[in-house]
Amino acid sequence: MPIDLRAEAARYYDLNPNVFDDIPFYIDRLPSPEARVLELGCGTGRVSIPLAQACAYLHGLDLSEAMLDLCREKIAKAGLGPERIAVEHGDITDYKLGMRFDLIIAPFRVIQNLETDAQLAGLFRCIQEHLTPTGRCILNVFLPNRPREELLKVWGTDEENLAWEIEQEGERMTCHDVRRRLVEDPLVLYPELIYRRWRGDNLLEEVALPIPMRCFYPDEFLDLIRSAGFTITGSWGGYAGEPYGRGKELIVEFEQ
Ligand SMILES: C[S@@+](CC[C@H](N)C(=O)[O-])C[C@H]1O[C@@H](n2cnc3c(N)ncnc32)[C@H](O)[C@@H]1O
Question: Does residue 189 share a domain with residue 125?
Answer without folding.
Answer: no
